[in-house]
Amino acid sequence: MTNHTIFEKKIQTTPKSQPGTLCGICSGLISKGEATVGPYDADGNLTFICNRHLRNSHQLISLLADYIVDEQRELTHRKQYNLGISEVTPDAWFLS
Amino acid sequence: MHGFYLERRALPMNTPLSKDLVQHIFTRGAKGSVVVVSEKPQDLAAIAKKQWHVMNRLVQRERASTLKLARIAELSNQIRWMERMSFIAKPIEELPDYSIIFATAEALVLKPPICSTLYITQEVTDEQFHFMTSWLHSDSIVVIYGKYV
Prior knowledge:
The complex is a heterodimer.
Chain A: E1 20-22, E2 29-31, E3 35-40, E4 46-50, H1 51-55, H2 57-80
Antiparallel strand pairs in A: 1-2, 3-4
Chain B: E1 5-9, H1 17-28, E2 34-37, H2 41-65, H3 69-84, E3 86-88, E4 99-103, H4 105-110, E5 117-120, H5 126-132, E6 141-145
Parallel strand pairs in B: 1-6, 2-4, 2-5, 3-4, 5-6
């Protein structure tokens, strides 16, 4: 593959080995190979969680609860101010 | 394919399948029914139910130890959801929303499930995989433990 970065400053075109994603509850960058599927966010998108959170049940329970509360607040805020909600309403995934 | 998300999982050292399964179901939250494909569905259902109760106790303990009102409310919701979940070790026609069904691949090929999350814990052939996932929605998740042939 041709490397186009040699003569171009501040442009990186080298592909990453595996596409990364952000952990839904700690916001750390992780590869999908070390991630677990988590709940849907306020936009109705699937989130991912670091596998290491699963190994610590206490941390998982508390962080996940905080995350869902934040997403519910975000959703309530959008409903209140008519900011638009995606077609897949994520509140269907939360108990009320 | 049907657009569902496919996750491949490898069990970490010293972690039983039932524990990882329960933790994974917990992270998915209350999103409809769950189906688990297993060679010994009744055995796995019994162990997973026990792990589920352990997890439920941890959530109760977390609720007792927190002072944040919003978190207490969310944990109460989670406890309610966890207590409502039933563990069924036979394939049934219509899956109730709060249920985890355990069945063999052979049984699910005959009655493909319509569920939000499908866990495959045994080796299945490409044909079995195709039939089992034929009725899944595009927002469903399929989690495969190990490899399938």
